[in-house]
Design brief:
single chain, 10 helices, 4-stranded parallel β-sheet, alpha/beta
């Protein structure tokens, strides 16, 4: 069979399509990225976000279309025979030979209004072992767990990574790219995190005013055990301008390049007509362009000709 893959709304490596590719190649099928001028037996379309446009062209060159992903149906899942199959990295040539993607846990016990994970995946539960991800010499692991510190299995996997690195020349490096929950960092956890080899930085969620203090405490504990790298803070931008600015600007006032906030406007997946306030777009742009964030105050930022963000404070 001829199989077409279509990532509708994201260039980020799509793990579901990588699994589907591996499954069909294992059956001897031809798999390629969808081309409107070729013919297919099945086209798999994956859509991540509910607020992004769907594929705009009518398909007449395939016998069957399979749509999946949260952007189409929050309850959609892969068949069991595909869910745990080895990823096909070859469909993304830009992924380096050292890099691997995966989840050690799925789900989350929290019920944050800006996150669909509990609704989609339920409470946190074990999913994979690190040795199922660090395969074929891939030792830089992008781990996409949503709250690994809330799971005993997750903590056991962190301990396992540390032990695997003992006496090993090619160390396993990690990036928990969805962020850690600073509220769950104890001194023991901080010591473990300080012993991991990080691809770039340690990431935390900092989505409410209370989490500023929790993030500060977690960073101090980790530093106490010898960590000298960067921290990255996810900051969701909610309805209150003053609160959002204060939370983001807290990390600028630290006066250190070690502390890097990242802003994202709140997306209401149940409201397809939602309009993102302009101040959220401007604050995200200022924060996420690090040269601007480090050298320019938000009040002085001029996102458009003739407009400075000091007007938001009037």
């Amino acid at each position: 069979m001829n199989i077409g893959l279509l990532a509708v709304d994201s260039n980020y490596p799509n793990l579901a399509l990588m699994k589907i590719s591996s499954y069909h190649k294992g059956k001897g099928d031809l798999v390629e990225w969808y081309n409107p001028f070729d013919k297919y037996d099945i086209v798999y379309m994956s859509k991540i976000f509910s607020f992004t446009p769907d594929y705009g062209q009518y398909m007449t060159n395939t016998t069957q279309i399979c749509k999946g992903g949260t952007g189409y149906d929050i309850s959609s899942t892969l068949p069991e025979e595909i869910e745990h199959i080895k990823l096909d990295y070859s469909i993304y040539p830009s992924i380096g030979h050292k890099t691997a993607y995966g989840f050690l846990t799925r789900g989350c016990p929290n019920k944050c209004k800006w996150c669909i994970v509990p609704k989609k995946e339920g409470d946190i539960k074990p999913y994979m072992d690190v040795e199922e991800i660090a395969i074929d010499g891939r030792n830089e692991l992008i781990l996409m767990d949503n709250n690994i510190l809330a799971s005993d299995h997750g903590i056991e996997q962190i301990e396992k990574i540390i032990k695997m690195n003992e006496g090993r020349m090619k160390k396993i490096k990690v990036d928990f790219n969805q962020g850690l929950d600073a509220r769950l960092v104890t001194d023991e956890i901080a010591k473990m995190l300080s012993r991991l080899k990080w691809i770039q930085q340690i990431r935390f969620g900092c989505d409410t005013p209370k989490q500023i203090e929790e993030c500060e405490k977690a960073c101090a504990m980790i530093d106490k055990h010898g960590y000298k790298g960067e921290y990255f803070f996810y900051c969701i931008l909610l309805d209150d301008f003053d609160e959002s600015f204060s939370r983001v600007n807290h990390w600028k006032k630290k006066g250190s390049s070690r502390y890097l906030p990242h802003c994202q406007p709140f997306r209401d997946i149940g409201n397809k007509s939602q309009i993102i306030p302009q101040w959220q777009k401007d604050m995200a742009r200022w924060t996420d362009r690090k040269h601007l964030f480090r050298t320019c105050e938000f009040e002085d930022f001029e996102p458009r000709k003739g407009f400075k963000c000091k007007e938001y404070f009037l």
